[in-house]
């Protein structure tokens, strides 16, 4: 399992990214669903301060404090710097749980800052927040999970395999390869639509898609299906997962996607507003 997601616009959203034990947002019901796996979480990245994305955090902290398992490990909550709603919520949670057995770290982060998850030899995996447009009252971020990888330098890519292995022996592998950054997961957070450059060439784009019909939208705070498809095409994603879908479309999402699937060259799936999604 890579991802476990629950998301219903207005009610609750949370995304568990298993390879790094990360929770992106912590809406209501996250502890109830994750049950005793809740103490596996090492990092929580909050996209913004709206209640449907943060209300479950208190239970995450409280459950982790009382459950079995390695509860002594610190839990770090990252959030957009200067987001006062989140700061006040974290203050409250700390006050309400003054007997915590683990360290609860509140960590404000800035756009484009690198937050390292692991680093060994030439390998690194980190998170980079990016700014998104949502509501004016709230600082909102999307997040990229990025890892460094090695590939052949451009000038060697068309050579036959024997030639490459000869060059590698003669010059050393470091001389014929280069390190590059690969986005493995992009989480949009709530947004009117991300800048496609922020998700360029990502493996998985998780983009909010509150409205399946653009004409259903009243305020320009959330994205619609046609906009998200356009963003995913421009960003050249490998896979698109739609989430934060309004419950008005429950049971009807497949119908909206039917025609779209024929015209795109990436995989598309969606988080049904009534069920937990697993990948
Ligand atoms: Zn929301
Ligand atoms: Zn929101």
**What structural class do helix, strand and pairing data support?**
alpha/beta
Under CATH, the homologous superfamily reads Ribonuclease Z/Hydroxyacylglutathione hydrolase-like
Mean pLDDT across residues: 95
**Could you list the spans in which at least 5 consecutive residues all have pLDDT below 50?**
none
SS element count, helices: 8
Q: What's the total count of β strands? A: 14
User: What compounds are bound to the protein?
Assistant: zinc ion
Strand content: 25-35%
In CATH, what is the class? Answer: Alpha Beta
* Cα-atom radius of gyration: 20 Å
Notes on the structure:
The protein has 279 residues and is an alpha/beta fold. The protein has a single domain, classed as Metallo-beta-lactamase, Chain A. A hairpin with a 2-residue loop joins strand 7 and strand 8. The longest helix is centred in the first third of the chain and has 13 residues. The site of one zinc ion (ZN) has 7 residues, from helix 2. One zinc ion binds next to loops.
């Amino acid at each position: 399992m890579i991802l476990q997601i629950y998301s219903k616009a207005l009610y609750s959203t949370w995304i568990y990214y298993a390879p790094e034990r990360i929770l992106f947002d912590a809406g209501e019901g996250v502890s109830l669903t994750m049950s005793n796996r809740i103490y596996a979480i090492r990092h929580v990245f909050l996209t913004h301060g709206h209640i449907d994305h943060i209300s479950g955090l208190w239970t995450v902290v409280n459950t982790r404090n009382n459950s079995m398992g390695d509860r002594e490990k610190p839990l770090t909550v990252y959030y957009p710097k200067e987001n006062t709603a989140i700061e006040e919520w974290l203050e409250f949670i700390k006050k309400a749980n003054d007997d915590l057995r683990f360290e609860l770290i509140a960590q404000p982060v800035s756009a484009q800052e690198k937050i390292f998850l692991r680093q060994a030899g030439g390998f690194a995996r980190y998170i980079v927040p990016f700014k998104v447009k949502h509501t004016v009252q709230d600082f909102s971020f999307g997040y990229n999970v990025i890892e460094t990888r090695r590939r052949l330098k451009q000038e060697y890519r068309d050579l036959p395999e024997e030639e490459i292995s000869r060059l590698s022996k003669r010059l050393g592998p470091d001389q014929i390869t280069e390190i590059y950054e690969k986005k493995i997961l992009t989480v949009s957070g709530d947004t009117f639509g991300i800048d496609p450059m922020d998700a360029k060439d990502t493996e998985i784009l998780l983009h909010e898609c509150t409205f399946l019909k653009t004409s259903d939208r009243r305020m320009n705070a959330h994205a619609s299906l046609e906009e998200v498809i356009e963003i995913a095409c421009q960003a050249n994603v490998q896979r698109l997962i739609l989430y934060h879908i309004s419950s008005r479309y429950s049971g009807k999402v497949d119908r909206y996607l039917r025609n779209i699937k024929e015209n795109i060259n990436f995989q598309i799936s969606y988080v049904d507003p009534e069920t937990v999604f697993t990948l």
